[in-house]
Amino acid sequence: MKKNALLLFAVLLMPVLASAQGLVQAYIIDNDGAATNVRNAPNGKVVATLPTSEAFVVTLLDVKNGWWKIDSDVEQYGDDEKTITLNGSKTGYWIHQSLLMLATMGSNYTKLYKTPSTKGKLVFKGEKYLDFHPIGIKGKWVKVESVDGKYTGWGLSDHFCTNPLTTCP
Fold first, then answer.
1. What's the rounded Cα separation, in Å, for the pair 55 and 117?
2. Is-contact 158 140, C-beta < 8 A?
3. How far apart are CA 150 and CA 123, in angstroms?
4. Model confidence over 44-67: pLDDT tens digits?
């Protein structure tokens, strides 16, 4: 009986593990000089702050009205690379999309489509480096809008640079 329960648990867990591998990440850009506020809900109470003197990468879980729910484990980059675990919220951790960034990798690698499919109409081909705000998510696809507002479309999440300290390959 224990073997069957363990096998059933493993089968049920497999899709969760597979989807975890396709998570979308972004880095934080907050240029106002103050710490980045992390809230307990969209536009909610501030439950944590991240210093703007450090570089951070977050995992995006869900989006609601321009606010991204992020994983509680935040990667800090720079002189002291480590994982910081946020705490203090029972409802999750949220950051506004205007503070989150993805970048193209150049050399025609990053492509944006009108729909989350390579069969959709091509709306951007990454000949140049551009920064994007994430605005939606669907599986391994992330909907982005360029900071200059010229381009909006869907791209594969692993075709964006999510490291704030490099331009990626």
1. 31
2. yes
3. 10
4. 999 999 998 889 999 999 999 999
Alpha helices for the chain (secondary structure H): 2-21
pLDDT in tens, 98-134: 999 998 876 667 899 999 999 999 998 876 778 899 9
**Are 99 and 34 a contacting pair, CB within 8 Å?**
no
Number of other residues whose CB lies within 10 A of the CB of residue 142: 27
CB-based burial of residue 166 (10 Å sphere; 0-12 exposed, 13-18 middle, 19+ buried)?
A: exposed
Q: What percent of the chain has pLDDT over 90?
A: 57
Block residue for tokens 């720079």: 78
CA 89 from chain centre, in angstroms, equals: 20
The residue among 95, 57, 50 whose CA lies nearest residue 77 is 57
3-state DSSP percent of the chain in helix, strand and coil, to 5: 15, 45, 40
In angstroms, the CA 159 to CA 169 distance is: 10
- With 0-12 / 13-18 / 19 or more C-beta atoms within 10 angstroms meaning exposed / middle / buried, residue 70 is buried
